[in-house]
């Protein structure tokens, strides 16, 4: 199909769908003013039942905790897939793909190095704070894990590639990622061993609004935090490998850890 | 169609925005000449699902579903917010995979024009 | 351990072991992931089979975290094992076990990652079959999609990469359509559990939002199920992935997406009249078109895996016809056909894998007569071809007879013709390959007929018997279990079509699944005719050059341009595929307005 014909087909189809879309939009529940039985029920009972003040975390880790387990595994899957795709070709000889023309790693200004060191530490601390406060205020393992990983990226900005590879050995972060996801799954098996339904929260719930409230949810949250940190760092490692300057033949493996 | 005309405009706006984002994202994919641009358009399509889900859970004059400093009361729907969180993770994972694929393809073909990187074409 | 607790294990065990394999990959012995993955797949198959067997006495309902519904309002996620979902999950796990045996030692270098992806792929599919929650269904759907995207690109050749890109883009749009459908269903009913939504749907069955939700959900699933006009991604992806991966794609992934539509229809939307009309009209039409188109396209291919990929579209179309007839006979037939087709198609893709490993290619013309020294593979592929053509033997035929019977009773003659065309063309295509590659039939290829594809040899360092073992196991399973499969299919159709909505919500007792009295699947003359026609068509194609001149000339003059046009639609451009996807959405929009 020529681009012109394709665009025409697409626009014609959109025109055909449009009346149906408007019709449905007109019959949607009134925006901001309709019943929400599921959400209201959880808003009403979760604080009393689980002692967590963050309803979104209560849903993510308890009421619908099984979704989060699946989502964790999706992350594992995507990171594993991206690793294979990126790493596979670097060791591949079959069709010998060339490395992307490398971006020269420019020497950094002292101010960049200083700023990266300062910000890196602050960002990582902030990430830990967000992970820890999942049960009380907005935050949790996902958001915090992503923040920690970006804090580690400051190492690359400040110290350059060799420094980055020193702080980020991929085996460690593979283990962190797999271990975090396994911890989440093991929480479910712990409930099974105690004769309860999978993922049933059987630990003491703690004080309402306390950092350590929520019982089993804390372990699940920690698992998510570890898995997301590990997964994102692995992604960063693999993508940053691609930006390396091509090394002359002969000492290809010279600076690999 | 008459119902469209009589409803107050603001109640329709979120649904129409969601539909618009979906459509314009698809348009971007259909006309894209570069795979990285195409992946961006896929992100626009995904954004429409954020808008839809969050609009479904919105409520006028209500607080966030975080009862740390005030007692449980009239709050927006926390369920859709949890769903959107999952949605975001899905978006991130798929984007990472797509970018890895695109990077590899670029190494082999030297181009990322969807017209020129087609599977099984002689 | 109670049955309720056990119902979680077929998903939880592969998830946990995948995470552990990743965490401990550097210290695991070399063959350990292989052995572990095969054992886990077998264990899941056994568990699912056991649970499915027990669920005949009443669906096994388990609420995660112990969150049972409150006053009819579900607040957690449930797994519900019925004979339908349970047996399909068991079949999937068994297919995975056979595939993992087939791929023993296939992926030396990045072995642990391959098994990680395969285990998560399996867990996603089993979770998809067992879950009773719309968003949870989406999570498993997306888990299996992400695993599938990664596994497609795994081959790392440029055609594999661009095939994986087309696959990922089109299917990800499908995932967002599903998510939008979930949003609409939730906005109207305030629930995510199937039973909870079903209650809301039956309270307002004519609501356009409900209909739109069904349209979006089924579009997303039809994309995964590769039905016209959403099918274009499938040949690109299935033919470039490694053959063990293609086995799962064609044998299980496509088919369970269609099962998902059937499950959603009866568990959630059955009380909406417009949805009923869409299912019996538009989806039936799509199935019909896919059955015919897939068959014709399969005949035109010379790359064996691409040929098999098109035949999957055709047979998935036949399955969709079975579901969309909305008749007990058709549904039980489609469920049985799903399993039978999975077994046969799985063994055929393994056969193609043997060609790639032993003969270094899958181009039919280039391999003419090259298969003589691996004749046992030829026997297997030929047998698979006959079964695809409808040879009245085994599980696939039991399903086919019921779908055929249902279509005949419904007076739906286009579907009958499409089923015939699909069977004859796909069977003929595979038989033609067998004849050419293993018996050296057909004309000697000239220099200009060289294969246009790149080198795609797969790892040959495996004994032939190891690769033939799972092929034989699948074919052997596909034949003698006819009666058992048919009886289970009959029970499963009852479980699928009469969900115990109120009892699952805690209002009322779960009761045993009692189908109407079972009769042996009918025997018609169709399969014999289809098989004979397939052999005839294969022979015609092989000996085309010896035909009297006017006949061949007439064909070239009139039919060939149309066929070239059809092939040109499969352009490999993802933008074209998305434009066709929009056309499919428009079809839904128009049909829903007039339905």
From TrEMBL, chain A:
InterPro entries: CPA3_antiporter_subunitB, MnhB. Residues 1-26 form the signal peptide. It is a multi-pass membrane protein. The keyword Membrane applies. Residues 115-233 form the Na+/H+ antiporter MnhB subunit-related protein domain. The keyword Transmembrane helix applies. Coiled coil: none annotated. Keywords: Cell membrane, Membrane, Signal, Transmembrane, Transmembrane helix. It comes from the Bacteria. The chain crosses the membrane at residues 114-132, 144-161, 181-199, 219-240. It is found in: Cell membrane. Belongs to the CPA3 antiporters (TC 2.A.63) subunit B family. This is Sodium:proton antiporter. It comes from Endosaccharibacter trunci.
TrEMBL record, chain B:
The chain crosses the membrane at residues 12-30, 37-60, 80-103. Its EC number is 1.6.5.11. It is found in: Cell membrane. GO terms for molecular function: oxidoreductase activity. Its main location: membrane. It is a multi-pass membrane protein. Keywords: Cell membrane, Membrane, Oxidoreductase, Transmembrane, Transmembrane helix. It is an enzyme of class 1 (oxidoreductase). Belongs to the CPA3 antiporters (TC 2.A.63) subunit C family. PANTHER family: ANTIPORTER SUBUNIT MNHC2-RELATED (PTHR34583). This is NADH-quinone oxidoreductase subunit K. It comes from Endosaccharibacter trunci.
TrEMBL record, chain C:
Keywords: Cell membrane, Membrane, Transmembrane, Transmembrane helix. Residues 132-369 form the NADH:quinone oxidoreductase/Mrp antiporter transmembrane domain. Its main location: membrane. Belongs to the CPA3 antiporters (TC 2.A.63) subunit D family. It comes from Endosaccharibacter trunci. This is NADH-quinone oxidoreductase subunit E. The keyword Transmembrane helix applies. It is a multi-pass membrane protein. It is found in: Cell membrane; Membrane. It comes from the Bacteria. The chain crosses the membrane at residues 6-28, 35-52, 87-107, 114-131, 137-156, 163-186, 244-266, 278-300, 307-326, 338-361, 373-395, 464-481, 488-505, 525-544, 574-594. InterPro entries: CPA3_Na-H_Antiporter_D (IPR050586), ND/Mrp_TM (IPR001750).
